[in-house]
Write a structure and sequence with these properties.
GO molecular function, one term: valine-tRNA ligase activity
Enzyme class: ligase
EC number: 6.1.1.9
Strand content: 15-25%
Pfam families: Val_tRNA-synt_C
Distance between the termini: 32 Å
InterPro entries: tRNA-bd_arm, tRNAsynth_Ia_anticodon-bd, Val-tRNA_synth_C_sf, Val-tRNA_synth_tRNA-bd, Valyl-tRNA_ligase
Number of strands: 4
Number of helices: 6
Largest sheet: 4 strands, mixed
Structural class: alpha+beta
Radius of gyration: 20 Å
């Protein structure tokens, strides 16, 4: 179920609503690979994948895949090459990066004001600090996704 959830999550991240993609499941041992092989039809159906191919750690994963870790025993690789428009996705991510950076800059300016610590309630200060941390994490994910797409080109 974790593998299916991870595949669905990847599909949502890359907006693959109608398209079926090949899915390569990189397993750390042959026992995990055989377990996934036995359930590959169910995984394929529930994750709306074109094909589900369990691989052992010594088998290479094809280039052009998005990667997500399902568990300590299995990594999901979803084939995106030829399915999505890489340039369009990179442009979207760069726009998103600009928006996140702008929001972070506004928040930093707000927090840097001299009377911020005295006038702003502690609860609001904590929320602002949390927003900044979340924005930083989002920015890192956007940069990582952009790098992954650029490797596909």
């Amino acid at each position: 179920m974790t593998v299916i959830k991870t595949i669905r999550s990847l599909r949502a991240d890359y907006n693959l609503t109608k398209t079926r993609a090949d899915c390569y499941l990189q397993c750390i041992d042959s026992a995990t690979a055989s377990l996934l092989q036995r359930h590959s039809l169910q995984i394929q159906t529930l994750s709306y994948s074109q094909a589900v191919l369990p691989l052992t750690s010594d088998q290479p994963v094809p280039a052009g895949c998005a990667v997500a870790i399902a568990s300590d025993r299995c990594t999901v690789n979803l084939m995106l090459k030829g399915i999505i428009d890489v340039e369009k996705e990179v442009a979207k991510l760069l726009t998103k990066k600009g928006e996140v950076e702008k929001a972070m800059e506004k928040l930093r300016e707000k927090m840097a004001k001299s009377d911020y610590a005295e006038k702003v309630p502690v609860k609001v200060q904590e929320l602002d600090a949390e927003k900044l941390r979340q924005s930083q994490t989002e920015l890192e994910k956007v940069k990582e996704a952009t790098d992954n797409f650029r490797k596909m080109v």
